[in-house]
């Protein structure tokens, strides 16, 4: 491993935009299909991966919802989440905020309890075995109705003390945030934090709606906000966290090339951007891969990566003192890394001289 790789994987970071169903790797999909006697329309892991060739968000969502059909029991949800945590730990993730889509499962007859208890048990195990803290963001599917979102909120009632936030995902265009203003107000009244996907494929107006009508504390994606200078300035002035997903943007054709990704423009405009994997099993990369890819494609400096990692903690839904503890781990890593680096450099100097 190069110094550069060990810096990127070792850099303590939080993942704020991760759909846990999007971490279901084809190998585990086959295993769960077998375990549960579910047939899937693929003959091999290679065939599954070959199907992951998307032209837009909807293309991906069709395959993603079909993939989730192998998830049946709490053990399945547990195993999927543990696989994510193990992989994320190798990439320096010390805190993860997991989005889950209950409606993807309850609409197939899987009880809400099976979904959430499986995730919660994995979260507990990840904290004791891997030292990763995590929390849950319950996301409403925006292609479904407002009533359906209210029913989901009602189903969650018994677990509200273990759900930190609500989110809004799925097909964006044609399903503006305004459709969910009342359910977000109800969630806020219950003490839940708020985030929403906006400006991934949808126009800047959807970002305004998320801010003004949903009163979100974070914007998931937010790329298209850059089309509106006033909106960009407002997001910067309000210190709004954007959970940006560069590899997802590439795979879903939001950008045509990572070399055209606006991540550094976002930072340059003073936006509080973070880097995230979105659906790593479908887009072919976990968080450190994405830090590395944007660094290479956009020529980000090491300081930019540190800024992105810092933003991931200050933009998290962690209470202030826990976020500060994560930031302290980041600073300690930077100290030891620069010490180690200067040792390597001075050893090299001594070797050269002798
Ligand atoms: N990138 C994305 N946008 C909207 N909904 C999603 N669900 C999973 N990934 C998503
Ligand atoms: Zn997403």
TrEMBL record:
SUPFAM superfamilies referenced in this protein's UniProt entry, alphabetically: Metallo-dependent hydrolases
Comment on bound cofactor: Binds 1 zinc ion per subunit.
Active-site residues per Swiss-Prot or TrEMBL entry: 200 (proton donor)
Catalysed conversion reaction: adenine + H2O + H(+) = hypoxanthine + NH4(+)
Single GO BP term: adenine catabolic process
Binding residues for substrate: 279
Keyword vocabulary terms for this entry: Hydrolase, Metal-binding, Nucleotide metabolism, Zinc
Top-rank lineage group of the source organism: Bacteria
Protein name: Adenine deaminase
């Amino acid at each position: 491993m190069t110094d550069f790789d060990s810096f990127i994987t070792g850099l303590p970071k939080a993942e704020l935009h991760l759909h846990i169903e999007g971490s279901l790797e084809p190998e585990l999909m086959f295993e769960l299909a077998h375990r549960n006697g579910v047939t899937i329309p693929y003959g091999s892991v290679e065939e599954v991966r070959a199907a992951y060739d998307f032209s837009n968000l909807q293309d991906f969502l069709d395959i993603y919802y079909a993939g989730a059909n192998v998830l049946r029991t709490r053990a399945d949800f547990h195993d999927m989440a543990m696989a994510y945590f193990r992989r994320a730990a190798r990439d320096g993730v010390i805190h993860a905020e997991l989005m889950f889509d209950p409606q993807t499962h309850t609409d197939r007859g899987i009880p809400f309890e099976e979904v959430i208890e499986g995730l919660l048990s994995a979260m507990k195990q990840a904290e004791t075995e891997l030292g990763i803290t995590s929390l849950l963001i319950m996301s409403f599917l925006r292609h479904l109705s407002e009533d359906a979102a209210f029913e989901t909120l009602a189903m969650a009632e018994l677990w509200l003390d273990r759900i930190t936030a609500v989110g809004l995902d799925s097909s964006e265009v044609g399903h503006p945030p305004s459709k969910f203003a009342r359910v977000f107000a109800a969630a806020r009244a219950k003490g839940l934090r708020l985030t929403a996907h906006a400006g991934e494929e949808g126009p800047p107006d959807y970002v305004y709606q998320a801010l003004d009508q949903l009163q979100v504390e974070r914007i998931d994606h937010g790329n298209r906000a850059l089309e509106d200078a006033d909106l960009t300035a407002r997001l910067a002035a309000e210190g709004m966290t954007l959970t940006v997903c560069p590899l997802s943007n590439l795979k879903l054709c939001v950008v045509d090339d990572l070399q055209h990704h606006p991540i550094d423009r976002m930072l340059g405009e003073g936006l509080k951007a973070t880097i995230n994997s979105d659906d790593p099993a479908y887009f072919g990369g976990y968080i450190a891969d994405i830090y590395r890819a944007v660094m290479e494609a956009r020529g980000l400096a090491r300081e930019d990566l540190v800024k992105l990692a810092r933003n991931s903690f200050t933009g998290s839904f962690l209470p202030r003192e826990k976020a500060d503890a994560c930031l302290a781990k980041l600073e300690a890593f930077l100290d030891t890394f620069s010490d180690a680096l200067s040792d390597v450099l001075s050893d090299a100097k001594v070797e050269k001289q002798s």
